[in-house]
Write a structure and sequence with these properties.
39% of the residues lie in helices and 13% in strands. It has one domain: TIM Barrel, CATH 3.20.20. The chain is of the alpha/beta class.
Length: 160
C-alpha cells in the first residue's frame, strides 16, 4: 500500500493481477495467506486513484485499471468471488482480462501437493468463468487478443 500511495498522481494505468480469493488457496499455492486481503486493498486503492479504464477513439488506454485474472483448474469459486467483488466493490465497468492460458509447470507439474492443478483448464471452466463474470455484472471483458493470436485447443477431460 505504501508504494501505491506514492504512485498517486504519477501512474495513469494500473494492471494488477488478482489470482486467488480464498486464503487457504493462497497459502497453498502462493505461500501467502494474506494475499487476497492485500490484493483487495491494493486494487481498490488503484481504482480510487485512476478509476475505470478510459480509452481514446482508437482504443488506446489513457487512464484507469485493467485487472487480470488467470482461471485456475478447479478453482472457479475463487474466480466467481473475484469477479463479483470487482463488479460490486469497484464497478461493473471494471475492465477485466480473464485469462485461459494456465499451464502447469515446475512444482505444479512435479509435486503431489499440487496434483489438483497439474492440468490445463477445461474449455467448460473458462466458459463458466466468463459467464459468471457477466452474471456478476461485468461487461468489459477483454477477449480481443483471442482473434489475433493462435490458441491451443482445450482437451476436455471430465472429472473423475
Amino acid at each position: 500500500m505504501d508504494s501505491i500511495r506514492l504512485m498517486d498522481g504519477v501512474v495513469d494505468i494500473y494492471m494488477p493481477d488478482f489470482k486467488l480469493w480464498d486464503s487457504q488457496h493462497s497459502l497453498k499455492y502462493l505461500l501467502a495467506r494474506d494475499y487476497p486481503d492485500a490484493a483487495r486493498r491494493v486494487i481498490k486503492a488503484m481504482h480510487e486513484q485512476v478509476g475505470e479504464l478510459r480509452v481514446d477513439e482508437n482504443g488506446l488506454a489513457l487512464r484507469g485499471v485493467i485487472v487480470r485474472h488467470l482461471v485456475m483448474p478447479g478453482l472457479l469459486d475463487d474466480t466467481a468471488k473475484i469477479t463479483r467483488w470487482l463488479a460490486e466493490e469497484l464497478s461493473p465497468a471494471t475492465y477485466v482480462n480473464i485469462m485461459d492460458q494456465y499451464f502447469p509447470a515446475w512444482q505444479a507439474k512435479t509435486s503431489p501437493k499440487f496434483a489438483d492443478i497439474n492440468r490445463l483448464i477445461w474449455r467448460s471452466e473458462f466458459e463458466e468463468a466468463l459467464a459468471g463474470a457477466r452474471e456478476a455484472g461485468l461487461w468489459r471483458l477483454d477477449r480481443r487478443w483471442r482473434h489475433v493470436q493462435p490458441r491451443f485447443e482445450f482437451v476436455e477431460i471430465p472429472p473423475v
